[in-house]
Amino acid sequence: MRVDLERVAKDTHGYVGVDLAALCTETALQCIREKMDVIDLEDGTIDAGVLNSMAVTNEHFQTALGSSNPSALCETVVAVPNDSWEDIGGLENVKRELQETVQYPVEHPEKFEKFCMSPSEGVLFYGPPGCCKTLLAKEIANDCQANFISVKGPELLTMWFGESEANVREIFDKARQLAPCVLFFDELDSIATQRGSSLGDAGGAADRVLNQLLTEIDGITAKKTVFIIGAINRPDIIDPALLRPGRLDQLL
């Protein structure tokens, strides 16, 4: 067999029937394009020898996957990053801890189950702007071959009552559909400050968004491989509830 179906299955998380049909069509077209130089387009038929030499391979599938996405992602910015650890200089301790916290549970779930270990739901990156927080999140998603959804905290806030919380629910729903998925919240300190501390927030919008965020994190089950990474500049203003065990309890 020239196609590794198990590999294709791992690379098509979140795909539905119509997505798989489109992927197969594009894969077949990739195979045909390779033979275009020996096909006489002016002739109404194709030589039997050319047809018999055509065969779909893993390379055709991988090329087609590069230009296809699940239909669930039509309204969401998502990607499988292609960054590597070599793109990040230093930070060896952070890299190792990130691999142990995120990558190992995805690649070796049977070991965690054997020893009754519960993997962490997420980690919190903290540090000044420009210290590779976003790049680290992309790299670990690439190593896990997981979908990557990036959201900036302020983008979730709107002026309409209840819409900000709905935005949080929608993001988590998308992540569950696309599991395994790394859900990255950049500038999380803009929506995760200690509740009651936003003096200018008369309507309590920031507090409601944080409550919804905590509810969604608690609602992630072990069956859905969704890992949450938050990036902040000031850990001292973060609401302690977000750092409790089972939430973003690992600070890097």
TrEMBL record:
Domain of life of the organism encoding this protein: Eukaryota
Provide a GO biological process annotation: autophagosome maturation
**Per its record, what are the GO molecular function terms?**
ATP binding; ATP hydrolysis activity; polyubiquitin modification-dependent protein binding
* Every AAA+ ATPase domain range: 119-252
What the entry lists under InterPro entries is as follows:
AAA+_ATPase (IPR003593), AAA_ATPase_domain (IPR050168), AAA_lid_3 (IPR041569), ATPase_AAA_core (IPR003959), P-loop_NTPase (IPR027417)
Q: Which Gene3D superfamilies match?
A: 1.10.8.60, P-loop containing nucleotide triphosphate hydrolases
Q: Might you report a single GO cellular component term?
A: cytosol
Recorded hits in Pfam families, A to Z, give:
AAA, AAA_lid_3
Q: What is the protein's given name? A: AAA+ ATPase domain-containing protein
